[in-house]
Structure formats: C-alpha cells, structure tokens
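Retry 2 of 3 after timeout on previous attempt. Resubmitting structure tokens to design endpoint.
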C-alpha cells in the first residue's frame, strides 16, 4: 500500500505546465536515453489492443481534495480487444506533459527512482489509439491504481486482460495520483509517509465514489467505431494497494459488480459490509505491512496467493521498468529490492497475470476468440 501522510497537492494551469514542473520538481528536459530503452512487455492474448481516453465530470459532488470546485473530474483509459490496428498508432504510457512532471516527481513518489537520466515520454504501450473494436459484447473490468500512482502504471496487466477479450477501464483518482492531465490543468500530488486514518478514509471513500461514477457513465460514453460494446451485466473490479482496498469496498457496496481482485490492499477500514461475491487476493512476501495485511484479511473468505521474493510494486509496471533501470545503473539493488523484490519478477508477474485472468474468466466469461493466429488482424 502507498505509505503516505499529508498530501502535497498542486493544480497548475495549462499555459504554465512545463515551466511549473521545472520550478516545483526540477528540470523536465534533463532526461537522456538510458542504456536499453524502457519497454513494456507485449500482452499474451490473441487480440491486439485498442485504446481510448476520456475525462468525466461528476457535478453531483465536490472534489474532497479541492473543495469549492463543484465538480469531481475523473480520467479514464478504456482498453479493449481490437479488430485491426492498421493505421492506429501505439500510445505512450505518459503524455509529454505528464512525462515532464514525472521526471521531477519520480524520486519523490517512489524513493529510489532516478531524478534524471530517464526518458519517461518514450515508453510506449501496446494500446493502439482509436483502433476499431472487435465485435461482440464483452465483460468490463474497472481498475484502481495504488495510492500515489497514475492509472497508467497498471497498463501491462490491463493490456493482457484486454488482449484476452475483456474491456478494461483504468481510473485516475486526482488528488492522490502523482500527476493527472485534465482540461482544467494538471493535478500534481506527492503523498509522503503513513496516511493518518482520516486521510486514508477520504482516499478510499473518494475512490469508491469514483468507481461507481465511472460505472454509471460507461453506458453513455461518446459512440464511435472504436468503442467496444460493453456488457454492463458482467462487471468486475480490481486494484492495487489503496486501489485494492477501494476495489473490495466497491464490490461490497455495488450490486452491479460481480467479482473482484485485491492486489495487496488493506481491508481494516470499518464499516465494510459483508458480501458473497467472488474475491481473489494477492500479497507479496517482502511487503513490510504483511502483519497488518494478514490481520485485515482474516474475516474474508477468498482465495489467497503469496508471491515469493517479491515486494509491493511488483503488481504495477515497475515490475518491468525497475530491472531495466537497474541494468542501466540508474537504480540500486537495494532500491530495486524495496520496490519489487530482489528476484527476477517473471514468476510473480506470470502468477498475477494468469491468476487474475483465470479468475475473471471463471466468473465473468468472455466470448471465445476466433480460430486464428495471434494478432492476425494487425
């Protein structure tokens, strides 16, 4: 779970984005190519992946982190199996503006990450912008990231799920995400230390409200040939750390959600009503909150998976980025161990991918893929 207390938050007007990033968090243009480009692994399913991004505004509630705005803005990325990706470019993990901010934010958000030497803007996802969707009505999975992380750090697992026939919606939670580029400006948040109970409660309550709001709006997203057909009768939720906590609370609170996966999130916030929907929970051997995790999970009937020689951020894209940064001499062995664990993360990543995929396949089955070669429609 993200270990943070009093959040330091800033919202910067668009006209001053890069200058403000340099002033607040250091230079944004100092990144140099590291030996060996940072890459994310390809998804394993039979379908290429399409991608669309939206900003949604909830005028029924105020933003708890910026009171008085009269609207809660939420940014989402929709990933889905595509019919073809010809002529549709792969999207970067971060926009140029977001990457400029994260260049300065990285060592503050995750101690041990380098303050320079990384071209964060050059990391490409395997999601193809506005690719036409594969026909068929498909289950929907909602994802909430770890506290302090942007939604894009859950890209690899989401792409893998989408390549196997599901629609995955990555949700940013402005106010406890490192940076979120919105029409109203860039929301920048650095969370540090252990969260006090009131802050953590606000984080989880806000995230659950965000998840339910996004679910309300999915049926009315702007139509386009690129939009997949969502089966809103087959909905799952998963999340990492604070996102895992929020996922379980959303599962308990919303009857539309049929199953959930908790990637090492505490479950000791009360009240948490009982529920009987299927739940899968992962935790790592190296997480320093393991005792609290175990105590908070005791009353839940759920399948549990322990990942050996791993640590908390192995559930995110850091599992792939940190080893490359270490190989380039930009991350120490100690920092790597603290972030993702000392071992090769391949086994942990495979367990999370396969376990999450098979869990949702069992409880939210997707249409069978056509009998064709992998990514034959590219």
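Retry 2 succeeded. Sequence:
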């Amino acid at each position: 779970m993200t270990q943070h207390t009093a959040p330091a938050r800033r919202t910067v007007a668009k006209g001053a984005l890069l200058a403000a990033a340099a002033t607040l968090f250091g230079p944004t243009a100092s990144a140099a190519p590291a030996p060996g480009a940072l890459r994310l692994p390809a998804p394993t399913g039979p379908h290429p992946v399409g991608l669309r991004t939206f900003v949604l505004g909830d005028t029924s509630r105020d933003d708890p982190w910026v009171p008085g705005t009269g609207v809660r803005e939420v940014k989402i990325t929709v990933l889905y199996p595509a019919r073809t990706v010809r002529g549709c470019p792969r999207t970067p993990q971060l926009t140029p503006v977001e990457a400029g901010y994260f260049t300065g934010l990285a060592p503050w958000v995750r101690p041990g990450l380098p303050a320079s030497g990384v071209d964060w803007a050059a990391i490409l996802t395997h999601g193809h912008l506005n690719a036409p969707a594969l026909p068929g009505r498909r289950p929907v999975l909602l994802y909430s990231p770890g506290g302090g992380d942007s939604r894009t750090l859950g890209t690899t697992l989401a792409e893998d799920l989408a390549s196997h026939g599901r629609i995955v919606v990555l949700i940013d939670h402005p106010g406890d995400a490192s940076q979120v580029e919105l029409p109203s400006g860039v929301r920048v948040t650095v969370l540090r230390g252990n969260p006090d109970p009131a802050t953590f409660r606000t984080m989880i309550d806000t995230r659950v409200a965000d998840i339910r709001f996004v679910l309300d709006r999915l049926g009315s997203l702007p139509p386009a040939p690129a939009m997949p057909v969502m089966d809103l009768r087959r909905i799952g939720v998963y999340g990492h750390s604070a996102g895992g906590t929020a996922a379980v609370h959303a599962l308990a609170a919303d009857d539309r959600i049929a199953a959930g996966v908790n990637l090492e999130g505490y479950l000791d916030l009360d009240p948490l009503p009982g529920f009987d929907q299927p739940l899968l929970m992962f935790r790592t051997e190296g997480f320093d909150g393991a005792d609290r995790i175990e105590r908070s999970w005791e009353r839940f009937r759920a399948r549990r998976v322990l990942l050996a020689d791993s640590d908390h951020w192995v559930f995110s894209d850091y599992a792939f980025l940190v080893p490359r940064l270490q190989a380039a001499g930009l991350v120490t062995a100690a920092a790597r161990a603290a972030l993702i664990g000392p071992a090769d993360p391949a086994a942990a990543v495979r367990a999370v991918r396969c376990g999450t995929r098979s869990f949702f396949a069992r409880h939210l089955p997707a249409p069978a893929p056509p009998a064709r070669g992998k990514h034959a429609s590219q």
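Attempt log closed. The first helix runs from residue 17 to 25.
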